Amino acid sequence: MITQLRAELEQNSDEEAKASSNRFFKEPIKCYGMKTPVARKIAKAYYKQVSNQSKQEIFALCEELLSSDYMEEAFIAFEWSYNLRKQYEPEDFVMFERWVGEYVNNWAKCDTLCNHSIGTFIDMYPQFIDPLKKWTASENRWYRRAAAVTLILAARRGEFLDDIFEIADMLLIDEDDLVQKGYGWVLKEASKQHQQEVFDYVVAKKDVMPRTALRYAIEKMPKELRAKAMEK
């Protein structure tokens, strides 16, 4: 089945889409080259073939896809793992944590896995917010970005605000721009429900907060607040 799926990805590859995909990344990426709706359609069609298998069997198939390092196969694996969200159990955290370490090597893989599968897992089992915070101390930039972007959808709903500030504190002076953009993004999402609190946080930290993170955090605020936050 995986062989069939890969053959179909190959048939749908497009050189123009491949060139376009590469422009979004500083690091080289492995991809067939196709638009997201095409990959989503293939993911959906093949999931029907495996949906009657056990969670562990489907996770094993996800792992096989992830091991190829192709962007589209990772996208399909993360779609399938998200489809299993109603079956998540606390012990699945170990696997998700390993996936970040072993298979995430660019921001798109990081965000797709974390926004959906891991983010939903944390919603279901909030006691895992503490192990998530430990990722901020990792030497691996993708664990550090993941610590922030896992909470994007929760931030948008106005949840986990104190934890978001704590994670931002832990990542505050990180020198990696993709980590800065990650925690800036989660602050921006939190500001939609907690504008004043996020504004106060940013102003309190602005002397040490990298400008990249600061600009992301205030992006959705009114012009006068943005101007105030950007004052030297």
UniProtKB/TrEMBL annotation:
Descriptive protein name: 3-methyladenine DNA glycosylase AlkD
Top-rank taxon: Archaea
One Pfam family this sequence matches: DNA_alkylation
First and last residue of the signal peptide: none
InterPro entries: ARM-type_fold (IPR016024), DNA_alkylation (IPR014825)
Gene3D superfamilies documented for this protein: 1.25.10.90
